[in-house]
Q: What sequence folds into this?
């Protein structure tokens, strides 16, 4: 698939700018790994919690195998899928590893790793954040709410560079996807700017 | 302003569908009131937490007067501003009531009320949710994170109806706005659908 990233387009993001991957509210892919056991799921209920250092919240149902891996390993990745990954996002969000242990292979989820981190990342995303779980057992148990601090982040520089999105100058297949319900999404659209002092 | 709602376009949303106002990640306006004291602020760090009943999370800085009003009254509104309210959203997010007690009057924020609720709502939004604060002092103090349960919700039926957004059939001025940083936003764009079983 021509829109999948190759290493040449991936560059690190300064940690205090990483929250901007999420600020405009895209649907995400969450992944985690413990030993050889790994999983990827979709999550729309994700938000920035802080920016310096960047922290995120994500809601993860108790039935998710990804959740088990996060609780075991203490780490997870938050990734920003693009229009090119729309079907993959719906599919990894529809099938549970608990029902089909071969989910990732069957769905042909294209994974890669960054140095120093044993967390599978999905090729073709516009951005990737690796988060260290900040344990809050009451939130996790009562609300399925997980908090993570971003410890590393990268973007596809064709669409996110110098701390900003550049959707209007990139291929439409690199636009972020924003979930409504079922298989229904919207792509991010056109820029709109206000003079901050006006 | 022609795009401001008039009462004829506002209809209640079933509470279990209210989360869909937020699911695609729009930037929001938060308002609260205690007695005659009221405030409106902008917030991008807002997420769905649950859907039945609909619950939300929102991050609100300690310097915000809106936060004081939420803590006093136990209620707040989460509203979905449209492109027509872009400048207003930036302005209410830039000026604090603590610096200018006449903020709402000076900025000419057009407010209205729904029966039974003493919370100011901003005209021209695409959706409005009134939330009852679920007190979680540790989250509020440590993370500036507030949890609310939606107790009433309405939409502008020109753009959200029957539990779904209809941006593609509405005027562009009714598109939701998605914040990146400073005065830089993106509008929500075009629909993208996947056959859920494909």
A:
């Amino acid at each position: 698939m021509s829109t999948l990233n190759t290493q040449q387009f991936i560059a690190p993001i300064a940690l205090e700018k990483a929250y901007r991957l999420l600020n405009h509210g895209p649907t995400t892919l969450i992944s985690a790994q413990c030993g050889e056991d790994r999983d990827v799921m979709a999550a729309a209920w994700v938000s920035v919690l802080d920016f310096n250092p960047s922290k995120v919240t994500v809601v993860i149902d108790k039935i998710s195998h990804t959740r088990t891996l996060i609780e075991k390993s203490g780490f997870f990745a938050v990734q920003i899928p693009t229009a090119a990954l729309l079907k993959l996002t719906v599919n990894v969000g529809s099938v549970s590893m608990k029902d089909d242990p071969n989910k990732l292979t069957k769905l042909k989820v294209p994974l890669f790793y960054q140095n120093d981190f044993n967390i599978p990342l999905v090729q073709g995303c516009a951005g990737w954040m690796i988060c260290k779980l900040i344990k809050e057992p009451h939130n996790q148990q009562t609300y399925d709410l997980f908090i993570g601090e971003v410890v590393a982040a990268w973007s596809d520089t064709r669409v996110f560079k110098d701390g900003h999105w550049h959707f209007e100058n990139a291929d439409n297949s690199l636009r972020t996807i924003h979930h409504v319900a079922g298989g229904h999404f919207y792509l991010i659209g056109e820029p709109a700017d206000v003079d901050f002092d006006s």
In short: The domain at 7-187 of chain A is CATH 2.30.110.10 (Pnp Oxidase; Chain A). DSSP finds four helices and 14 strands in chain A.
